[in-house]
Amino acid sequence: MTETRLRTLTSFTAYGLCAVFFIALAVQNLRFGFYELFYLSSGLGAVAAFGGAYTLTVRHYQLRARGHLPALALMGLLLVTTAWLQTIETAIFWCLPVLTLAFLVLPLKAALQVSVPLVFLLALQIVTTLPPASALPVVVAMILLMTCAGLSSRHYSHVAQSAEDLAITDPVTGAHNARYLDETLQKEISRARVTGHPVSILMLGIDHHDEVKDLLGSNQIQELYRGLAEHLFSLIRAGDTLYFLGEGRFCLILPFTPEEGARVTSERIRRSIASENWPRVARITVSIGATAQISQETQAERLRQRATDALDEAARRGHDSVWFYTDSRRVA
């Protein structure tokens, strides 16, 4: 299950339970003639039901949805209204599911933006209304609930981020994997079209890869991949991204890099790798295919294919070389 689906399921379930809770309270208040409490609990139930419907509406981009924060803030406002217009005991009872809901639905920072003011205002009302012996346990309980929920939310965010990093990172080299390449390249193309800045892509392959693999064996070739990735990381800029495609092939995306910059970078990488002393093989060489985004180009697949064609051409012409592919022309 993806994080988006997990977030959608969690949020929808939490909203649904809150809606059932507050609607049940509204029915009870109506039954016993507590009309002001009926209106307030109905409002909280309606907001929770709206949150559940909104969760389903934005299920495909749940992680970027911005409607949850206003909904939870409105619920907090209704709770503060309950505390000032009705009994503080009722507000205390009602705030517990809302606090829990905030940390289940919102990111940690946004949840704190909702819960901290809510707890502060309720605590202020509790201290000024209830005797100290009764007020202290209640305030401490709310703070403990908020703290525990915040720690759980922080732990979940950390685990989710770790899982995302593992999903897009090659375990051998530490570079991004091929699965993440097309997604990133499409984003860079879209950004290049909006900003007008160029983007280039390099495909790099180890020359005579099959012979090198036979010489080193499966374990040692992975050490070579790892060492080559570390070497490439030391050569690229902070905004450049490195991808390992398997079978001795790497890809580099160079944002804000025109054709001339891609040529210079390619040649610098080729010379640096050729002059390095590599374990067990002493010397390896690479062929590099390079290309830059053509004006009005929108498809990442075409840009990647041109770079692959350029790499194949560089290898065909004798290895340890760079070949640049631009438009419909191939340029050495």
The chain-level structural class is alpha/beta
The total domain count is: 2
Order of helices and strands: HHHHHHEHEHEEHEHEE
Shape estimate: elongated
DSSP strand tally: 7
- Terminal CA distance reads 47 Å
Based on CA atoms alone, the radius of gyration comes out at 29 Å
| Average of per-residue pLDDT values | 88
Figure out the total of helices. 10
Q: Strand percentage, roughly?
A: 5-15%
The strands making up the biggest β-sheet line up spatially as: 1-3-4-2-5-6-7
Q: What helical percentage do the residues reach?
A: 55-70%
Instruction: Give a quick account of the main beta sheet: strands, pairing sense, barrel closure.
Output: 7 strands, mixed
Please explain how this structure is put together:
This protein is an alpha/beta fold. It folds into 2 domains: 3-168; 176-331, 2-Layer Sandwich (Alpha-Beta Plaits), CATH 3.30.70.270. It is 68% helix and 11% strand. The protein contains 10 helices and 7 strands. The chain has helices at residues 3-31, 35-57, 68-85, 88-105, 108-129, 132-168, 178-195, 209-235, 259-275, 300-316; strands at 176-177, 199-206, 241-246, 249-255, 286-292, 322-326, 329-331. α1 (3-31) runs antiparallel to α4 (88-105). The two termini are 47 Å apart. 33% of the residues are buried. It catalyses: 2 GTP = 3',3'-c-di-GMP + 2 diphosphate. It comes from Marinobacter daqiaonensis. One of its GO terms (molecular function) is diguanylate cyclase activity. The chain crosses the membrane at residues 12-31, 37-56, 68-85, 91-112, 119-146.
